[in-house]
Amino acid sequence: MNTTASRRGRGGRERILAAAARLFATQGIGATGMEQVAEQAPVSKRTLYAHFRTKNDLVIAHLRDLALSGATLEGVLTREDIPPRDRIRRLFDQPVAAPVRGCPFIDAAAEFPDPESAVHSYAREQKLRMVALIADLVTELGCREPLLLAEQLATLADGAASRAMVLDDADYGRHARAAAEVLLDQALRET
After folding, report:
1. Which of left, alpha, beta for 58 (phi over 0: left; psi -120 to 50: alpha)?
2. What are the percentages of helix, strand and coil residues in the chain, rounded to 5?
3. Distances (CA, A) of 150 to 50, 61, 70, 111, 155
């Protein structure tokens, strides 16, 4: 059996998404062409466009896959096997990878700056979801102003992820984690 033919058969969508994830992480969304994704998958351009009519469709599917995978900053917030305060602390841990990539939703919004674009809108939804998840956790901890604290913690996490990427320092979140501890302690003392 021809291995190239079998690779091009079933699983094309998954291979396309895997190739897009690798390429987007290493060279950015804007610098990655659809032809390059098809070549890396490997699938025909016809197969690629059968699954994803536009690059925007591919980018949104990629971001959805990331969100569902739990491999983003937000992923730790839904883990019920970890106590609420520890979930918040883990917002400041970057995945151990080289180079450090930061937050894929912020990256996507930066590469699609029009707030009306589908990609930017999806990234915004994920960032708003992140605040809502943090607000739920700090409410569980007993905070009286959960949305205010959640916005502060999300700002720290996003800022730390961005600086970690720029500085290529996977442990950069330690600075934001220290600030988050102060904010949490203060908010809980006021309860």
Report:
1. alpha
2. 70, 0, 30
3. 40, 27, 19, 26, 8
Q: Is the pTM of this model over 0.85?
A: yes
Residues 24, 62: contact at Cβ < 8 Å?
A: yes
Which H or E element spans position 51? helix 45-51
CA distances from 129 to 43, 73, 119 (A): 34, 12, 15
The pLDDT, as a whole number, for residue 132 is 97
**Run of H or E residues at 146:** helix 146-167
Interatomic CA distance for residues 126 and 63, integer angstroms: 9
Place of tokens 């804007």: 30
Helix (H) or strand (E) holding 90: helix 84-90
Distance between CA atoms of 89 and 66, rounded to whole angstroms?
A: 21
The confidence band for 73, taking pLDDT boundaries of 50, 70 and 90, is confident
Tokens 């690779």 correspond to 7
Tokens representing 30?
């804007």
Rounded to whole angstroms, what are the CA distances from 160 to 6, 25, 37, 111, 148? 43, 18, 30, 19, 18
Please report which residue ranges of 28-117 form alpha helices under DSSP H: 34-40, 45-51, 55-69, 84-90, 104-111
Distance CA 136, CA 87 (A): 11
